[in-house]
Amino acid sequence: MQTLDHLPEGHPPVATGKVGLLLVNLGTPDSPDKKAVKRYLKEFLSDKRVVEIPDILWQPILRGIILNTRPKKSAHAYGLVWTDEGSPLAVYTRRQAEALADKYSGKYGDNVHVDWAMRYGNPSIPSRMQAMKEAGCERILVAPLYPQYSGATTASVHDAVFDAVKAMRWHPAIRTLPPYHDDPAYIAALKSSVEAGLAALDFEPDVVIASFHGMPKRTLELGDPYHCHCQKTARLLSEAMGRELTIAFQSRFGPAKWLEPATDLTLEELAKAGKKKVAIFAPGFSSDCLETCEELAIRGKEDFEEAGGERFAYIPCLNDSDRGIDLLDTLMRRELAGWI
User: Fold this and answer.
1) Rg of the chain taking only CA atoms, in angstroms
2) What is d(CA 134, CA 333) in angstroms, rounded to the nearest whole number?
3) For site-directed labelling of 90, which of 81, 107, 119, 123 has its Cα 20 to 30 A away?
4) What pLDDT score does 1 carry?
5) pTM for the complete prediction?
6) What is the mean pLDDT of residues 223-251?
7) Residue 23 exposure: Cα atoms within 13 Å on the Cβ side
8) How far apart are CA 174 and CA 246, in angstroms?
9) How large a percentage of the chain has pLDDT more than 90?
10) Which residues on adjacent β-strands are paired with residue 120?
């Protein structure tokens, strides 16, 4: 950390001279138990970007029904995928930050400060923004790790970042990572990862499924580009791989109509139609998490086999693989241009 050395006597120390890079992902409870999951879900489902229902209607439902029933089920699901290091999402996001920090320390010394945060849960965005400021970061690139833009994900991160900055007297300069759903580097990394995953299988899939996180259909009608971004990612990847991909959307919640086709129903319909061997991957997730490790790899497999499927494979996300870190490095250095 550099400090200004020409301050008048008695002046508070001033840290300066650094550039910050903050990787941000969705969030995770602190532990796989009902109490921690309830705390996490309360924060997550109270975000107006996530649930676009007036509080006077939504909060009684959330506090009266959902938070008294869903935490137990979700805690069980988290328990199935929890590791010795913590939840998969936190583990991989931390490793991504550490890998980039190692790269940049060799290139830029201690001038680039790399950290990570969760939109919901810990480490929180305000805490890491404040830590970066105290470490002397005058310029910060915030990188929401969502390839496809959505108001419920990317914009929510922006909200939290600027709320944190609002509380500061001396603001750092802020940049945000744009969506990268059609970036050639992202498509190339996906292609390499999926093809390597398919090559490692001991069977040839009848169908390869690209499963994106679902969103209420209403978000598309209101102008959210998420659905279009997902479609374009799948189209570009299909063209790059030279094979057809089946698009589906997972994680439906509540009675509203969601983007279709649904992943769970797609798996069942494929099995019943005689497609006995499938491989599935989740291109919208930068790191494996509950929605991939439990919902796809465990429940997806069960749904498929119960409907008559025979062979099922889940191909992991990019995570902290070499190709994944190279992609992040490419994206981050592009957006840091002029600062480093």
Assistant:
1) 21
2) 23
3) 107
4) 47
5) 0.94
6) 98
7) 28
8) 38
9) 93
10) 27
Cα(57)–Cα(27) distance, rounded to whole angstroms? Answer: 25
Burial of residue 206 (CB within 10 Å: 0-12, 13-18, 19+) is middle
Six-digit token string for 173 = 């300069």
**DSSP H helices in the chain:** 34-45, 55-61, 67-81, 88-108, 125-134, 156-166, 184-199, 217-221, 226-241, 263-272, 290-293, 301-306, 322-335
| Phi and psi, residue 169, nearest 5° | -75, -45
What pLDDT does residue 72 have?
A: 97
**Distance from C-alpha of 77 to C-alpha of 179, rounded to nearest angstrom:** 29
Rounded mean pLDDT, 141-154: 98
CA distance 276 to 282: 20
Distance CA 250, CA 256 (A): 14
Residue 4 pLDDT > 90, yes or no? no
Instruction: Name residues whose C-beta falls within 8 Å of residue 62's C-beta, 6 or more positions apart in sequence.
Output: 42, 45, 46, 51
Residue among 238, 246, 281, 244 nearest 262 (CA):
246
**Angstrom distance (rounded) from CA 159 to CA 49:** 9
d(CA 130, CA 135): 9
Among 115, 21, 17, which Cα is nearest to 337's? 21
Residue 148 has pLDDT above 50, yes or no: yes
